[in-house]
Amino acid sequence: MWRTYGFDAVGAFFRGDITLRKLRVLADGLPQAGPHTRHTTNGIEYTYTDSLLWALMWGLMQNTVTTAQAAGSKKAKMPADQMPPYPWALQDKKQALGGSLGDHTQEEVLDFLDSL
Length: 116
Fold this sequence. Notes:
This protein is mainly α and 116 residues long. 46% of the residues lie in helices and 0% in strands.
């Protein structure tokens, strides 16, 4: 709250400078992502917009996989059985949304992409 309002609102409440109602209004007026929410998202700022985009992307992946399976593709499958709360929190670390590097190192892949 210090960064947003320029004073310690919780300290002001405990000193009796502001009421509990004003503290609640100040807390409700905080931005949706920032230092006060990073502890719940593994240190990454994650807004409501990001959450909505992640849900839309997961739904699009489900639709694509279902369509591919209906067309007879045996390889089509979702990266996880349940939707992870965050895109970076996939249960199986071997699977990633961006694909794999194969037998190449990350430096080799980056060099190849730079040469394109």
